[in-house]
Inverse folding.
């Protein structure tokens, strides 16, 4: 056996030992709260990776297909079963309801040891959750990017804020759901990175939709335009994945993804203003008006 082969075997064993140690120290039972377009495929990826997983949602279990047997309707029972909860609810109000108010899963006496906030919130809302969190519950802000198609494929990007030991404790969970895990720093740093990223992303949604509408009016094949943009300076995450993104053709409607982008714009502006770099409110107002004015796209 050659020296290089021996070294390769040693490295492989070492990696296996690390992976095994992570699996042993990872949360034992994981709960996913908010099993919608993102939460449900995330829960399925965790289940496929071998974790014991339960789901919680305000909708009846019958709506969750083959995952229905894993849904727990009673919030107290859900919290009792899970030592880690990944929250993927819609907004800050639902986050506070889940943790402290209506469902109250993270109040004193809770069995939960780690709360992972994967919803996109303003960073100050993460701080508000941390102030109310019962002693003994670790908090990670770990928003993700990639849309439902990436959640289904297990290739989300996670931006994580929190104590380094807590991040490593939960890393096996993130790696089961995504292919890029970035520890951005202390609590709130993951959310700060996410809302800034989303500001750029939603700006590109507005720009791509505007040029596709213009192309239709000018007689340009919109598929050809998207192909060319994807190979040139007009490339964007949204435009390059237009056919894959389930909401790519949506117009603005209450409760849909475009409305969520409008909420995310507010979160980004909140963070910028907290840092006193709000700057051009005219641009923000234009972006908000453009998002709210989007009509369903049917050009190709």
């Amino acid at each position: 056996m050659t020296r290089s082969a021996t070294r390769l075997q040693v490295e492989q064993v070492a990696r296996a030992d690390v992976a095994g140690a992570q699996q042993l120290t990872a949360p034992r039972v994981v709960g996913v709260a908010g099993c919608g377009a993102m939460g449900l495929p995330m829960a399925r990826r965790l289940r496929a990776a071998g974790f014991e997983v339960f789901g919680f949602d305000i909708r009846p279990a019958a709506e969750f297909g083959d995952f229905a047997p894993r849904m727990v309707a009673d919030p107290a029972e859900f919290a009792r079963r899970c030592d880690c909860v990944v929250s993927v609810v819609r907004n800050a109000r639902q986050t506070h309801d889940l943790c402290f108010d209506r469902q109250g899963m993270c109040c004193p006496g809770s069995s939960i040891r780690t709360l992972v906030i994967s919803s996109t919130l303003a960073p100050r809302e993460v701080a508000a959750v941390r102030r109310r969190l019962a002693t003994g519950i670790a908090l990670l802000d770990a928003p993700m990017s990639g849309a439902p198609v990436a959640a289904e494929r297990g290739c989300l990007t996670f931006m994580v804020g929190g104590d380094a030991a807590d991040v490593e404790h939960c890393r096996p969970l993130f790696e089961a759901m995504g292919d890029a895990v970035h520890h951005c720093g202390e609590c709130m740093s993951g959310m700060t990175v996410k809302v800034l990223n989303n500001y750029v992303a939603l700006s590109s949604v507005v720009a791509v939709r505007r040029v596709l509408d213009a192309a239709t009016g000018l007689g340009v094949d919109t598929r050809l335009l998207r192909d060319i943009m994807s190979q040139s300076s007009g490339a964007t995450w949204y435009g390059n994945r237009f056919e894959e993104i389930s909401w790519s053709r949506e117009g603005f409607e209450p409760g849909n993804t475009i409305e969520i982008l409008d909420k995310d714009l507010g979160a980004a502006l909140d963070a910028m203003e907290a840092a006193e770099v709000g700057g051009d409110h005219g641009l923000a107002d234009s972006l908000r008006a453009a998002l709210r004015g989007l009509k369903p796209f049917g050009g190709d």
Notes: The first strand starts at residue 29 and ends at 33.
